[in-house]
Amino acid sequence: MFGFHFCKVTGVSMSPRIPENSYVFVVPWLKIFSLKEGSLLKVLHPRYGHIVKSLAKVDRNGLFWLKGHHKSSVPIEKLGPVGKSQIQGKVLWIFPPK
């Protein structure tokens, strides 16, 4: 109905910012929230499926470049850019495991 949802983040590619097995609260209303460098986004990536990454930059063609935070994360160049239609929402809250 509203489109917001929780999802579990597995793996360490976003640690320490998002610890492994955390839950995140995702809101799809991108027009309400400004996207700036460092924004956490849930994306449907054509190669890697559903992922949560940080926005690294928006290029002059309007494509979004994403990055992880851990040294083992897939590099920006290998992830490649994604279009706005692939962004499923912005992460507003992180709920780390107990």
Q: Quaternary state, please?
A: single chain
Helix content: under 10%
Stated plainly, the CATH topology is called: Umud Fragment, subunit A
Q: Based on the structure given, which CATH architecture is correct?
A: Ribbon
- The tally of beta strands, per DSSP, is 7
Number of domains: 1
Low-confidence regions: none
Which sequence of strands runs across the widest sheet? 1-2-7-3-4-5-6
**Global structural class:** mainly beta
Compressed to H and E, one letter per element, the order equals EEEEEHEE
Helical segment tally?
Answer: 1
Percentage beta strand: 35-45%
> Roughly how many Å is the radius of gyration?
13 Å
Measured distance between first and last alpha carbons: 30 Å
Mean of the pLDDT scores? Answer: 93
CATH class identity? Mainly Beta
CATH superfamily: Umud Fragment, subunit A
Descriptive notes:
The structure is a single chain. The protein is mainly beta. Helices cover 4% and strands 43% of the residues. It is built from one helix and seven strands, in the order E-E-E-E-E-H-E-E. It has a seven-stranded antiparallel sheet with strand order 1-2-7-3-4-5-6. Strand 3 (40-45) and strand 4 (49-58) form a beta hairpin. It starts with a strand and ends with a strand. The mean pLDDT is 93.
